[in-house]
Automatic annotation (TrEMBL):
Gene3D superfamilies: 3.30.530.20. This is SRPBCC domain-containing protein. InterPro entries: START-like_dom_sf (IPR023393). It comes from Winogradskyella marincola. SUPFAM superfamilies: Bet v1-like.
Length: 152
């Protein structure tokens, strides 16, 4: 696993950036910026600390899949940490075995720092080597989309 970090400055409050990123006021804002990863991206669950949450989408055959995760921490408008511990295969949760072992326990951390109307979002995540190129090109595009949505 390699640690990755991405940053973006957004001309808005930390509260608005946080709400837009997580789809707090409108789930569609979450779905719009995460569509860069998968056009059908959504989540099922909530963002409360300790909650189970599914990050789901459908593949090219229409099969539902995604990540089984837990909100490890959530300080609204400041920080959120997501711990991934399984995959969703259709309606089945898979939490052990070779598919999961590569990245189980991995965290995605998002920090929001506001200074004079500008919010810096820092994303820290881990990725298996086979996904590095994908993330290095996709994360910046997704954050650009988040910036566009947040600055509206």
């Amino acid at each position: 696993m390699k640690k990755l970090q991405y940053k973006i400055d957004i001309k808005t409050s930390a509260k608005k950036a946080y709400n837009t990123m997580l789809g707090i006021d409108n789930k569609e804002t979450y779905e719009e910026w995460t569509a860069i990863f998968n056009p059908t991206s959504t989540f099922e669950g909530n963002w409360e600390k300790g909650s189970k949450i599914y990050f789901v989408g459908t593949d090219e055959n229409g099969k539902r899949g995604g990540m089984v995760s837990e909100i490890a921490d959530n300080i609204p408008s400041k920080f959120i940490s997501i711990r991934h511990y399984g995959i969703l295969d259709g309606e089945n949760e898979i939490t052990s075995g070779p598919q999961v072992e590569k990245w189980a326990g991995g965290l995605e951390n998002y920090s929001f720092e506001e200074h004079n109307g500008l919010t810096t979002i820092t994303v820290e995540t881990e990725a298996d080597n086979e996904y590095l190129d994908y993330f290095e090109t996709t994360w910046p595009k997704a954050l650009d989309k988040l910036k566009e949505l947040s600055e509206k």
